[in-house]
Amino acid sequence: MTSVRDEGVVRPTVEDEVAAAGSELIGGPVGRRALLGAHWWTPVRVVALCALGVFALGMVQKLPCYEGGWFFGQGAQYVHACYSDIPHLYTGRGFEAGLTPYVDRITQYSGGMEFLEYPVLTGLFMQVAAWLTPDFAETMQEQQAYWLVNAGMLMACTAVLVVCVARTHRKRPWDGLLVALAPALALTATINWDLLAVALTAAAMLMWSRSRPLAFGLLLGLATAAKLYPVLLLGPLLVLCWRAARWRAFGSALVGTAVSWLVVNLPVMLFAAEGWATFYSFSQDRPVDYGSIWLIISQQTGQPLEKANAYGILLMLLGCAAIALLALYAPRRPRFAQLAFLVVALFILTNKVYSPQYVLWLIPLAALARPRWRDVLIWQACEVLYFLGIWMYLAYTTGGNNQGLPQDGYHVAIAVHLIGVLYLCGMVVRDVMLPEHDPVRRDGSDDPAGGVLDGAPDAFTAHETLSGDSEPSLDAEDRTVRWGNPSG
């Protein structure tokens, strides 16, 4: 029998053909009389353990670099696709020398960078890991230890991430497996410190799903203090709250975001302004770099493309306007996770750099926006190809023996990544315009992760305004008749 605790939980092996086929490896789809949720192996715990196992496999994948690839020449870390910023920046940003981030100049260690070029909360994360790193006689051993300490801290971030995703949709905890088993999570988790911001963003979305907009804002502000991209989520939230007239909730989220961001940043802004500003000036001034559409254009035309910033900002603004129109014109108010995925994906597509670990930004949003194994796996395959492509390209350009992927091949790898992201964006847009195709809404739900937006009637839609339709907005009872029970 099915336990009471499992009542109503969506099982992917029942509704998803790819999940059902994949489950044959462990005995096939769950049966009607399966006993689930009545013992220790709850969905959230299973998801968390799977994520930790995948993270550990990613650490094993870095073993060739840990044993010497990071230290003895550049070629090995690219050939084995095990590069990580972490050990290099331990010495290259003055942590080994005991320098204080944002306060002490690091020019003699960094090769030109005057101050640490990371947001404040990420800098604190790096500094805490440096304090926990034991002293060794050899620098190489300290770099290895620093990577291990960071890996342990990032593993904790991974656990927080998957638990938050699994609990965001109360009836869809198994969607967390889309994050836990993502190949790109294993490959990129310990390249840099992005998982800190990703975990905080997932925690913020969990708070929003529980109708706690102030807590959402506080966590989103912390996430933005660790990486810039989380602040983009306020844009979709503004449009959705506009359509539903939930201004108080949006105001609480906005205030919470501003307060927590200021609490983290203000002390450094006041006492180390130049160091604090380095992240923002570096982001603005850096040239076109790896992984972007702008790199393809620049290398194919032989031009430096000095106006890439302006082009990227213009495309970003146009894309945000299109997402806003989509949200206001859609026949049914989109789910928050759908628009959050679209706006972050837009930022990635228009940015002038795409580091391999940036895929981590999208993985939890994709699991919430489009929880279908086929589509997520297609996208993940594209990202894995890009992950291999960039390291083979760097092996080709730095190895001196022309072994690896030449420039044109690398451009193909970038194109594959861009097409993969656009494909998943297309599926999400289709779900928005044709809500009957949305896997989350098939049971009559509205937006299970939408918090105060879940089941709320529309106060305004562009569709009615442009068409001159005078039909009043749906109240809760009408919505139930037309779409099914809003609470799912």
Automatic annotation (TrEMBL):
Pfam families from the UniProt entry: GT87 (PF09594)
Mode of membrane association: Multi-pass membrane protein
Residues that span the membrane, as ranges: 115-133, 145-166, 178-208, 214-241, 253-273, 310-329, 336-354, 377-396, 408-429
Region span, Disordered: 439-488
Entry's Gene Ontology molecular function annotations: hexosyltransferase activity
Keywords: Cell membrane, Membrane, Transferase, Transmembrane, Transmembrane helix
GO CC terms of this entry: plasma membrane
Subcellular compartments: Cell membrane
Similarity field: Belongs to the glycosyltransferase 87 family.
Protein name in the entry: DUF2029 domain-containing protein
Lineage, highest ranks first: Bacteria, Bacillati, Actinomycetota, Actinomycetes, Kitasatosporales
